Amino acid sequence: MAILRLEEVSKKFGALTVAEQISFAVGEGEALGIIGPNGAGKSTLFNLITGNIAPDSGTVHFCGADVTRVPPMVRCLSGMGRTFQIPQPFEQLTVFENLLVAGSFGTRRQEAEVSDRCAGILVDTGLIDKANVLAGGLTLLQRKRLELARALATEPKLLLLDEIAGGLAEGEYRSLVATIRAIHAKGVAVIWIEHVLHALNSVVERLLVLHFGRVIGIGKPDEIMASREVREIYLGIEI
């Protein structure tokens, strides 16, 4: 059963088309990777899925319901969580307080009710020793982990990751990927935008390729990366 389904979703900003009749579905517990060159419309697609941007046409279904005109907060409460390419923590709050805010507002429960789960998320994301550190003092890797932890605190059924491995050294992103793989193994569906292909391919079952707002391919990673069109557009290899 599909947890998310887009049907012919389109969006323009003036004369610029950023999404052109995009259709695809993500199954419950599936991991889908999204790739494409800069400016392909990847983050815009996330904003259309989460409700930060409304489509001009087409529909977005989540957990069997039409959420095309539903605001982001309601989608979050329904089980849709996301990270942002640039981490946006509450810098004057501690790491643990950041999770409490996300957990309470993202589930409409009291902080006391989400406290134990938030502490467990800190353990799972490798941040437990930073629980009482102000978020403004974290390294990039720690900020990326906090971004992931805050999304998990909302108890998502579907987790959208926007270049969470970007800017990290190899050892850093490998440990982060292991965390993401463990989250996916628990049954959380994942849609992951990423340029670090070997990180992405170690988690996802399928790849979707965007180019100028159009889906030019979707399928198993090895099949997609063997495509002549994908190699010419994404990798810049002239065949």
Provide the descriptors you would attach to this structure in a database record:
6-stranded mixed sheet, 4-stranded antiparallel sheet, alpha/beta, single chain, globular, about 240 residues, 2 domains, Rossmann fold
Taking pLDDT < 50 over at least 5 consecutive residues as the criterion, the unreliable ranges are none
CATH fold-level name of the largest domain: Rossmann fold
Order of helices and strands: EEEHEEHEHHHEHEHEEHH
What is the count of helical runs? 9
Q: Trace the largest sheet across and list its strands.
A: 6-7-8-3-9-10
Question: How would you characterize the overall build of this protein?
Answer:
With 239 residues, the protein is α/β, with parallel strands linked by helices. The chain folds into two domains: 1-79 and 156-239, P-loop containing nucleotide triphosphate hydrolases (Rossmann fold), CATH 3.40.50.300; 87-155, no CATH class. 37% of the residues lie in helices and 26% in strands. The strands form two sheets. The chain has a six-stranded mixed β-sheet, with helices on both faces. α3 packs parallel to α5. The mean pLDDT is 93.
List the helices and strands and how they pair.
Elements: E1 2-13, E2 16-27, E3 31-35, H1 42-50, E4 57-62, E5 65-66, H2 72-77, E6 80-82, H3 95-107, H4 111-124, H5 140-153, E7 158-162, H6 170-185, E8 189-193, H7 197-201, E9 206-211, E10 214-219, H8 221-225, H9 228-233
Parallel strand pairs: 3-8, 3-9, 6-7, 7-8
Antiparallel strand pairs: 1-2, 1-4, 4-5, 9-10
Helix pairs in contact: 3-4, 3-5, 4-5
